[in-house]
Amino acid sequence: MIDALPEMKKEASNKKLKEAFGDHLKETKNHKKRLDQIAKKLGIDDLSGETCKAMKGLIKEARSFISEDATSEVRDAGIIADAQRVEHYEISAYGTAVQFAKGLKKDDIAKKLQQTLDEESAADKKLNKLAIDNINKEAKNN
Question: Model pTM?
Answer without folding.
Answer: 0.88
